[in-house]
Amino acid sequence: MTGFQRIRSTLIGVLMLISSFILIRFPDYGFMIIAGILSISLAIYGIRTLVFYFTLARHMVGGREIFYLGVIVLDFGIFTITVADVSPVFLIAYLLAVYVFAGLIDILRALEAKKLAAPSWKFRLAGGIVSIIIALVAVVFGIVLKSMDTLVYIYAIGLIYSAVTRIITAFRKSAMVYIQ
């Protein structure tokens, strides 16, 4: 990780911490804040992926998949902001699906890293398990008990966890491979 990437990752982590504390402080507006954060972050990621495709990835093997990913993620970002006004149940289900999917991806990457004897596989496995646990707890409080304030607190806790892991990863030593 370069110095600029470390600074950027740390700043994003700090912004995530500030956002989570705003959610904890104002849980009444939390649902709309979560919808805004989710839709803006998905739209930005989709636009970044599309820019990457048009600048470089269209000449790469697998570039078409990057294009499809960018279009789909951008559509999800736009879809999230339009659905937020209709019903909170759609956003809750969407948020839970994102947490479960991210947790499964982290677990699968950790298992692959374990096979390759990478030292940080335990950290990634713990992150995947925490994401799935957050999703299950959110199902109980959001859909079964219909408690929006508790769901906002759960999302804020998940955001704090993501921010702390991002900041820790930014300060972790990178493995440097030198070719002689």
Describe the protein in words.
The chain is globular, with a radius of gyration of 18 Å. It contains six helices and no strands. The protein has one domain (3-171). With 180 residues, it is mainly alpha-helical. The chain starts with a helix and ends in a 9-residue tail after the last helix. It has helices spanning 3-25, 30-55, 63-83, 88-115, 121-144, 148-171.
Query: What's the Cα radius of gyration?
Result: 18 Å
Q: What is the tally of beta strands?
A: 0
The averaged pLDDT comes out at 83
| Count of structural domains | 1
**Share of residues in strands:** under 5%
- Helix/strand order: HHHHHH
The chain-level structural class is: mainly alpha
Number of continuous helical runs? 6
Detail the poorly predicted runs.
Answer: none
How is the main sheet built? none
How would the global form be characterised? globular
**Amino-to-carboxy terminus distance:** 21 Å
Helix content: over 70%
